[in-house]
Amino acid sequence: MANKKRVYLFGGGSAEGSAKMKDLLGGKGANLAEMARIGVPVPPGFTITTETCIDYYKLGADKIRQELEQDVVNAIHFIEKHTGKTFGDINNPLLVSVRSGAKVSMPGMMDTVLNLGINDDAVQGLAKQTNNERFAWDSYRRFIQMYGDVVMGVKPRKGEIDPFEKAIEEMKKAKGVEQDTDLTADDLKELVEKFKQIVKEYTGREFPQDPWEQLWGAIMAVFDSWNNERAIAYRRIHEIPDDWGTAVNVVAMVFGNMGDHSATGVAFTRDAVTGEKRFNGEYLVNAQGEDVVAGIRTPLKITKADSIAWAKANGISEEERRTKYPSLEEYMPDVYKELYEVQEKLEKHYRDMQDIEFTIEEGKLWLLQTRNGKRTGLAMVRIALDMVDEGLIDEKEAILRIEPNKLNELLHPIFDPKALKEAKVLTKGLPASPGAATGKVVFFADEAVELGKKGEKVILVRIETSPEDIEGMNAAQGILTSRGGMTSHAAVVARGMGKCAVVGAGEIEVDYEKRQFTVRDIVVKEGDWISLNGTTGEVYLGKLPTIDPEIGGYFGRLMELADKYRKLGVRTNAETPRDAQNARKFGAEGIGLARTEHMFFEGERIKHMREMILAETEEDRRKALDKLLPYQRADFEALFEIMQGLPVTVRLLDPPLHEFLPQDEESQKEVAEELGVPVEKIKEKVEALHEFNPMLGHRGCRLGNTYPEITEMQVRAILEAALNLKKKGIDVHPEIMVPLVGVDKELQMQREIIEKTAQKIFEQYGDSIDYKIGTMIEVPRAALTADQIAKVADFFSFGTNDLTQMTFGYSRDDVGKFLPIYLEKGILEHDPYQVLDRDGVGQLIKIAKEKGRSVNPKLKLGICGEHGGEPSSIEFCHIVGLDYVSCSPFRVPIARLAAAQAALRYPYGGEK
Amino acid sequence: MANKKRVYLFGGGSAEGSAKMKDLLGGKGANLAEMARIGVPVPPGFTITTETCIDYYKLGADKIRQELEQDVVNAIHFIEKHTGKTFGDINNPLLVSVRSGAKVSMPGMMDTVLNLGINDDAVQGLAKQTNNERFAWDSYRRFIQMYGDVVMGVKPRKGEIDPFEKAIEEMKKAKGVEQDTDLTADDLKELVEKFKQIVKEYTGREFPQDPWEQLWGAIMAVFDSWNNERAIAYRRIHEIPDDWGTAVNVVAMVFGNMGDHSATGVAFTRDAVTGEKRFNGEYLVNAQGEDVVAGIRTPLKITKADSIAWAKANGISEEERRTKYPSLEEYMPDVYKELYEVQEKLEKHYRDMQDIEFTIEEGKLWLLQTRNGKRTGLAMVRIALDMVDEGLIDEKEAILRIEPNKLNELLHPIFDPKALKEAKVLTKGLPASPGAATGKVVFFADEAVELGKKGEKVILVRIETSPEDIEGMNAAQGILTSRGGMTSHAAVVARGMGKCAVVGAGEIEVDYEKRQFTVRDIVVKEGDWISLNGTTGEVYLGKLPTIDPEIGGYFGRLMELADKYRKLGVRTNAETPRDAQNARKFGAEGIGLARTEHMFFEGERIKHMREMILAETEEDRRKALDKLLPYQRADFEALFEIMQGLPVTVRLLDPPLHEFLPQDEESQKEVAEELGVPVEKIKEKVEALHEFNPMLGHRGCRLGNTYPEITEMQVRAILEAALNLKKKGIDVHPEIMVPLVGVDKELQMQREIIEKTAQKIFEQYGDSIDYKIGTMIEVPRAALTADQIAKVADFFSFGTNDLTQMTFGYSRDDVGKFLPIYLEKGILEHDPYQVLDRDGVGQLIKIAKEKGRSVNPKLKLGICGEHGGEPSSIEFCHIVGLDYVSCSPFRVPIARLAAAQAALRYPYGGEK
User: Fold this and answer.
1) Which residues of A touch B784 (CB under 8 A)?
2) Which residues are paired to A886 by β-bridges?
3) pTM score, two decimals?
4) Residue A187 at interface with chain B, using a CB cutoff of 8 Å
5) Whole-number Å distance between alpha carbons of A463 and A517
6) CA–CA gap between residue B668 and residue B662 (Å, rounded)
7) What value of ipTM does the predicted structure carry?
8) Which helix (H) or strand (E) holds B523?
9) Catalytic sites of A, residue numbers
């Protein structure tokens, strides 16, 4: 044990550790070492290994201190040597920070102590150094408070408030001031004395003046914090092993507020908004990091070019700029040059755009942090591709660098960032479908359609939407609902349309009668302007200008790259010509799911549909179906033509029939009049069709098998459409998909009906067409008995929405009652409707694939649930070896990229 | 090929085949051979092998006839020799029947031809033989009709009715008679001519007069019928291989109507009602089998003893009896003696009670059929055990002989069979819970309770029942509902109570307001008497006397035998003391499922439950829960005391909370008044708790994890009850079951709550008790991830009701909309809520068992769904290796027997 190297030094252009030693030094320690190693000026310091933390729990504090003692003393001397400062010195004191740092970041879970080393002597040295007595004493009182709490365990007694805070309050009252910042240096001196008394009173010990004692206390406190309740809970939720331990990082403090030759700032190696290769950033002279954050002073630009542009935009003369707002490039040309070189080096070293923090202490540059910079989707794509061109990274790495979901930003309108700054957030819902939308509030679908025709921009606001609202949703700029989750009707349909939607905004109370909604005490009336951000879920009052995205050459190039590497096919879920066109534009290789029920709502169709439902005999049902046939056939012709050359999977009627009948009395009356039947008949039918659990009810192929004539009509529409187009020389590949199969004989019976109907049509036309028959796998039993079902299927398409619903037993419409709590408590890591559950649902997919292929090796496998557009789920589909994913049109590019990433990460997953 | 033996002769005391040759000779052929072989007089005949049928399809009719020709000719001569009759003879013609007969019975699927050999000559011989010209000519015209249809393919042309039927109608019209039987011998002679013309007209061929030609046609027709549509469909549904083929049986016709020395009858080797070893039966002199069926003449008793008893019961003098109604024993003592010996021989040979058909042709006894006789449950048990004592069969065979479901008859009251004969069936529903009940109609649970207290017998009639009706159900003699399936609330609760119930009687329309129900045009008012047969689903008007069953020594002995061989434990689902007592009486070895929610409906409890649900804060919820605690604790004390020494599995609260709130406005008002809250609050809560798919909603452990205080209260009630009893020296084994787990962390979190609460209680009591924590496996995901869940579970109990629901995606409450159609069309073989689906649900159980035991070898496994009391499902539980099944109290004996049968059938299934 005693032979283990426990302390790793860094600083002065070298380091004992490196970025590769994250297991031993933690993320922070390894990174500080790496910067030192490549010659970036970081304040000197040292890291105590994670292993020591584990040994601390095995051997106890005394034994560990004994083992560490000499190394830590040497390490502090090492820091003193490199800083020229001395621990506890009255003139030039060395202050250090003591921070935890595990292998992976556990933000805020463990303890940190800053300004360690300050005491009654050092506070004077700090005052001199910073030329700021108030700052020095404030630092001292903060240190006592932090150290007293974290290391010495000063906690308020039962029923008390925090004693330090109480002392501050009393002091402010005594001095007659309101703010902490109004306390003078002398007040703070008094407070330091008071704080020391508090420590004495609560711990029975004096506050330690000896910096060494302070240091040992802080090191042990960091070790202890590995096992505090928060940290344990965090590890449980994130599945971090308890035996990783935390490292301890002890680093010299540096100060950017020591006068006009000191400064602090942040910089980016490239433009985080556009991705342009252009060093940029801001700084403040004689300031600390927190001053930049506080935003009291205006930060200055680092480069001259930025500075000039900024002055121009703000109407400041060049003269004034040069004197009052100079760039760092002009103000400290040497330091700037060094900084420029450092950022170049860092970017080259880390091979990514860096976000760096620096402090200049009396003309000396120190880098405090470097990390990969956050960036917009646009910048992300451009930077990755530029870096390929620059030879910094290869194509594969470029692909893996892109966060697929951020491509959304490139595909949808966004709010003008300037306008957004002043906009008032009214409330927040779930970000159901990305983009930005602004329009007048309207509550009814038909009115949305009417206003839409007049060219007015509207936002359709509903408690929830139903299939009857589809035309209204289509006409609106965006959709806002007060109920429903990420897979509610509104959400699914909006995503399909690529239309901005915010759903489940629970604060909103919609009053259809008064034609208004309220949020707390704010009333928004029909006709008022609101704006929705479907990417964040935010709802704004008023009209916010939007900007349409420009999909430049970078996007196209990225997609080409993705296609080069991916193995999964990418189809789309679409049933309207507009969706299909969009999807083709985005690179969809076919339609994986066309929901035919959506075709039954428009205009006359719903009337015939209702006639069909109300029919008492097969004969009457057939009559109504005959009227629906031409509409449906025309729909398919349009769809097939757009998708020519590509497969189109058409799902037969799926929802329970009651969804086509109005549920409220008023509408029932209207429908009765329209159809010329007594309203009682409508009511009776609604009553007869009522189900306690409609999701598990009379729907899917259960309809097609109890009313085979419905299947017949749909098959006729599909195949006649295909044959009509074939006559025109258009290449059509229809695939007929039977929904909700759970028993092989269900599909067999549907197959017989389909084939018999096809035979008749082919005879009538004197021509035939190749088509496939397959099924959704969306009932657990279907997956479990896939070897039986695959015998009568040409393809399987996993309907993971329903499959998730039944595998978990979570009603999609009701899950909002407990899912948020489950996510919060860590019972679930993700919403399983968003991220495919590999352990449960995924296992069923695997079982189905293996069993299905075992009897039918040519079986084609795809997924058409919402998961088909979600990157982690797409990765799973690749690993498990599906043939394609199908997603809403606007997620097609995301799926293409995610599929490529999966192929690169799992080159052997998906090999068949 | 030519070497294959294709024709097997039987008759004259010997046979070439035997009962063991069912594959080759079919069931019927093998059995006829067997009887001949053991010396029972059967009419001579022969069987053409099933193999020949298969070859017929391979080689064609000509080739097969060629191969068969000589053998068939020889075989007919063999029959002629043994009967002394001649094929086609004008004086003494031989007639034969030609019947199909596959390895397993396929009733009515294939073709049969009777009286073959009749022609213009033979009809005269038949008239002489039978001394009945009309009979002879009627046989001839029937033969032409049957042969014309089956063999020659006379079918009505499009739009026509059957030409033979049309000819009969025209004849009746011409003769001015109403009934077929009114046609005279001469009329029939005319009709025969007419029929021959029809055959000529429809087939272009003369009706064959040559008996040989008739025979070959019939043989080939039987072969053909193996592949008719009905037979193919039947095989598909029953999974009978297509390549089994059918045998053809050609047997000499014998006639019991050839005069006073001829007779026909049926007999049983033992009493089919009581099981007593007592030969009995009935016969008719000068009659055919169909005369017995027609019931025009009163059949006479076979034994003298029976005859005397019958005369006594009907007030007939001994003189009159002896002359007009003699027994066979007296009328034909020699034949009787032979018959008596034959029945003894047959029973000994088949080692089971036989149901035999015989014909006496001119003093000569012929056995036409023997088969195992149908019998009552009581007789079934007695016969099996008597036969063990007689050394005919061993214990194992006795156990395997019992149809478990028929034990029901021994456990429940039945209607007096005499009264039943005259009773009028009003309508029929599903036989939800066996037994017989009679009482006055009452529509409301509270009134049932009130009348029950006064000692009145009532039948509770509801559209459907809800948990609020439980007391009323308990007070009623039986329950009748117009909606719901075999697992509806009414059905499940009634079975649990062992109370007679008929559910889903769809013809009934209940009108609560008028306090009456109607069936078609019959109105039944409150207070009217009705009677229910829960075993058949029949509903009768009026008061039918019931008989309580006597569970004699035979039943007890059978149960002892079952216990000796079974490996599965048998527990019960029970939560009331009455149920628990019943179950213990029936031999339950513990409680596998006590549903705690049923305990929250009585009296004050529901009030506190509602307070709990309406509470806005945890504090208020806890207050209400504190009030529920003493009730619940007392319930558990009662249950634990009855079940002392045995394990009791208590399931924590499972149903969604809205089930405890009234849904209609009237009741909401009442509750609001009772609780002293505004009715709006109740309405709001009902609204807030509303779910679209409550089965997949906020229930089970989702409640316990969102409101941990509910779990805490229940755990407190369970463990305090256990500790209180422990003080009194009572041995208690509580097992706490967490419902609806789908994610391991759900159970982990509940486990933490349970253990923490237990710790507190043990500290308070200064004592502790052993208890287990486990979960229902009822969500597919739980089964799929059982290896994760088993780490925090001591036991699994498969909740196969919910598991079936989610695996199939069939809502139990709504499945009535399509399940009957699915069963009818053969998509499903069984209602999966009745018979456990081995392929899907069963696979999940297997997966869960294997995964669960892989991480936790001691994991205890049981089943507590409705399937736990169903024999085929119990067999599966044995095969898969569960530890126990749990079922409603009245099914405990059935489960004990079924478990023993499973252990005997699958001695290696279930070995762990």
Assistant:
1) 807, 839-840, 843-844
2) A571
3) 0.80
4) no
5) 10
6) 6
7) 0.79
8) strand B522-525
9) 489, 864
